[in-house]
Amino acid sequence: MTLKRPTIGPLISVTVAVVLGTYFAFSAVQGEYGILRRVQIEAEIEAKRAERDDLRVQVDRMANLTHRLSDDYLDLDLLDARAREVLGAMRSDEIVIR
């Protein structure tokens, strides 16, 4: 009776297949284009969208104030408030409380 020696070829093939499968699975989860990176990018996108919305509100508010102080449309109350704030002006019948 002769004993057959196990061949090394199938063992190497299986080992290479397992290593490659593990590498691709790891890359799919934690790689540069993996699932975890995608979740991180989506969170950054939501944060940037919220920041963009806040900036739009600020721009709209500044555009409204600019329009109200323009030559075409003059809001006297706003002009009076800005003059008091910038110049420190006040009317003679006002009382200042500090």
Decide which structural class fits the backbone: mainly alpha
Taken as a percent bin, the fraction of beta residues is: under 5%
Cα Rg: 35 Å
Mean pLDDT: 88
Q: What are the segments in which pLDDT stays under 50 over at least 5 consecutive residues? A: none
How many β-strands, per DSSP?
0
Coiled coil: 38-65
Keywords: Coiled coil
InterPro entries: FtsL/DivIC (IPR007060)
Organism: Thioclava marina
Short description:
Residues 38-65 form a coiled coil. The protein is mostly helical and 98 residues long.
Write a structural description.
The structure is a single chain. The chain has about 100 residues and is mainly α. It has one domain. It has helices at about 10-30, 35-70, 75-85. The N and C termini lie far apart (about 110 Å). It holds the Pfam family DivIC. Keywords: Coiled coil. This is Septum formation initiator.
